[in-house]
Specification:
- This protein is α/β, with parallel strands linked by helices.
- It has a single domain, classed as HUPs (Rossmann fold, 3-Layer(aba) Sandwich).
- The chain contains nine helices and seven strands, in the order E-H-E-H-E-H-H-E-H-H-E-H-E-E-H-H.
- The protein has helices at 14-27, 50-61, 72-75, 82-93, 105-109, 117-123, 140-149, 177-185, 196-205, and strands at residues 2-7, 32-36, 67-70, 99-104, 125-130, 150-151, 165-171.
- A seven-stranded parallel β-sheet has the order 3-2-1-4-5-7-6, sandwiched between helices.
- It is globular and about 50 Å long.
- The chain binds adenosine-5'-triphosphate (ATP).
- Residues 7-10, 15-16, 19, 103-104, 106-107, 129, 131, 172-173, 175-178 line the site of adenosine-5'-triphosphate (ATP).
- Adenosine-5'-triphosphate is lined by residues 7-10, 15-16, 19, 103-104, 106-107, 129, 131, 172-173, 175-178.
């Protein structure tokens, strides 16, 4: 089973790493690929450059046994569509290998806004994690989609290559990149939210509008 966790990672933070590791434990995979969304299509431009976001992601997983930085979307031109990433992976791996795409509840709720969103579940399973405070309800489309695809046990994911939605209900860490950027912009310390090497990198490059050292 291949597990992927996509994000803008602007910057990558401890919440991402914790969630990816917990998912690995829960679904029984030995590695999770953190796929950097090079040119995210449904949000404003990131606060850090693509090169800086990639460097931070590599630093964050440098000594990690489980987590890997994945540059698949860096090489492609145009917006970074998950469906295209998954289709490219399927072309390499074939149709039988289970592929899991990990995402937060906030991202899952907005799945219908994704490019060719129905095809995503033809290509992969979705494993949905929850940040504390993220309990907003699903709309009608997502309620129906969830009812059609939900499974209760992680063991179900290994039985098919794609098409299941597994919700992991345990609360992850209450950290967002928005919080990190806001703290730094306000001149506050954010090292408790970040891998140490990422904090050092942000300070050395004076990212996110922090006061100059
Ligand atoms: P921003 O605040 O800029 O929107 P973010 O913290 O949500 O950023 P992203 O890179 O946009 O980070 O998120 C990548 C994925 O990680 C999304 O699916 C998101 O829901 C999920 N995610 C982000 N933070 C956490 C967290 N603390 N716990 C679990 N999942 C998270």
């Amino acid at each position: 089973m291949i597990a992927l966790f996509g994000g803008t990672f602007d910057p990558v933070h401890l919440g991402h790493l914790h969630a990816a590791r917990r998912v690995a434990e829960r679904i029984g995979v030995t590695s999770v690929r953190l796929v950097l969304s090079a040119r995210p299509s449904h949000r404003g431009p990131p606060g850090a450059s693509l090169a800086d976001r990639w460097c931070m992601l590599e630093l964050a997983v440098a000594d990690d046994d489980v987590l890997r930085a994945d540059d698949t979307e860096l090489a492609r031109k145009g917006p970074s569509y998950t469906v295209e990433t998954l289709a490219a992976l399927r072309a390499v791996e074939g149709g039988a290998e289970p592929i899991v795409w990990v995402l937060g509840w906030d991202a899952y709720r907005l799945l219908p806004s994704w490019h060719r969103f129905r095809e995503v579940l033809d290509l992969a399973h979705l494993v949905v994690v929850r940040r504390p405070g993220q309990d907003e309800a699903l709309d009608e489309t997502m309620t129906q989609l969830t009812q059609a695809h939900a499974v209760q046990a992680a063991s179900e994911l290994g039985r098919w290559p794609a098409g299941c939605v597994l919700r992991i209900t345990e609360a992850m860490l209450p950290i967002s990149s928005t919080l990190v950027r806001a703290r730094i912009a306000a001149g506050e310390d954010a090292r408790d939210l970040l891998p140490p090497a990422v904090w050092t990198y942000i300070k050395s490059r004076n990212l996110y509008g922090g006061p100059t050292a």
